[in-house]
């Protein structure tokens, strides 16, 4: 279980994350939704030890805050970052083989054969150089690499970004099959797919949590949009606010 408590991340004067708390049980999926700049990537980077943070991040009760990114990954927190990092000069299969090294010392949950089973498109191109994969294929490979690294918790940063709908659907099918075996913390800007798999949703805006609860509470797109972009209060107010008339303008109109 991953427990994030009162997380804060600052870059100089920029408060990227402030007061974020959430829990990812080892068999659950949690979605973090928010617009550009909301602090989603910073949250995942903090959990992985890639940026200094305040607050507490615990894995199965053990504090991760003082550990290096390498040790955090070794403990089973596996991060699929924005922009899919794969080794372009290696083949698909070599990329997977290299990634198994990261999981050494933990019980292997997914073999390379399991990954090919989950993502058959990868099996078909196992000897192709990763440089010759499309964006969606690279994303599948990045997810395959994360799986063979024996994750306890998978951190997925906008896994559907830039993908054709059918490819994004396939990737979410994979997550659905993983759920139960691995804790999933999925960051997205687009809610539709992730709401189909998440147990819990946290909405962030300008670094702060502005709403959280069971995914079933976030199926109203108007409510979600209000939370994400901060238009009106989350109180059933109209979706589109009236014109922003100042007292001065009103006086001038009279
Ligand atoms: N290295 C950095 N130095 C300074 N400010 C940063 C840095 N990285 C991010 N920020 C700022 O921190 C805030 C949160 O950024 P972050 O990348 O976490 O947002 P995000 O929710 O992932 O956005 P997106 O959806 O665009 O990926 C933004 O205001 C961003 O400009
Ligand atoms: Mg981001």
From TrEMBL:
GO molecular function, one term: ATP binding
Family as reported in the entry's similarity comment: Belongs to the ABC transporter superfamily.
Limits of the ABC transporter domain: 2-231
Keyword Iron recorded: no
Keywords noted in UniProt: Amino-acid transport, ATP-binding, Nucleotide-binding, Transport
Pfam families assigned: ABC_tran
Protein name per Swiss-Prot or TrEMBL: ABC transporter ATP-binding protein
SMART domains tied to this protein: AAA
BP GO annotations: L-amino acid transport
Positions of region (Disordered): 234-254
Regions of compositional bias (Low complexity) in chain numbering: 234-245
């Amino acid at each position: 279980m991953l427990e994030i408590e009162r997380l804060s991340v600052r870059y100089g004067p920029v408060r990227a994350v402030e007061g974020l708390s959430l829990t990812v049980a080892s068999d659950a999926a949690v979605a973090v939704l928010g617009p550009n700049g909301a602090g989603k990537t910073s949250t995942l980077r903090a959990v992985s030890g890639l940026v200094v943070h305040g607050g507490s991040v615990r894995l199965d009760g053990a504090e991760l805050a003082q550990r290096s990114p390498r040790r955090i990954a070794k403990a089973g927190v596996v991060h699929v970052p924005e922009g899919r990092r794969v080794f372009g000069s290696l083949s698909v299969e070599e990329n997977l083989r290299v990634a198994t090294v990261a999981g050494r010392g933990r019980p292997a949950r997914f073999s390379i054969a399991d990954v090919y089973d989950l993502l058959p498109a990868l099996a078909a191109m196992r000897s192709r150089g990763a440089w010759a994969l499309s964006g969606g294929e690279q994303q599948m490979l990045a997810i395959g690499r994360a799986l063979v690294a024996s994750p306890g918790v998978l951190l997925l940063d906008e896994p559907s970004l830039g993908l054709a709908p059918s490819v994004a659907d396939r990737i979410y099918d994979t997550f659905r099959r993983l759920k139960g075996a691995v804790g999933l913390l999925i960051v997205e800007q687009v809610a539709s797919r992730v709401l189909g798999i998440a147990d819990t949703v946290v909405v962030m805006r300008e670094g702060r949590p502005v709403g959280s609860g069971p995914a079933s509470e976030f199926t109203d797109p108007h409510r979600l949009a209000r939370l994400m972009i901060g238009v009106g209060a989350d109180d059933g107010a109209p979706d589109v606010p009236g014109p922003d008339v100042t007292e001065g303008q009103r006086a001038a109109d009279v």
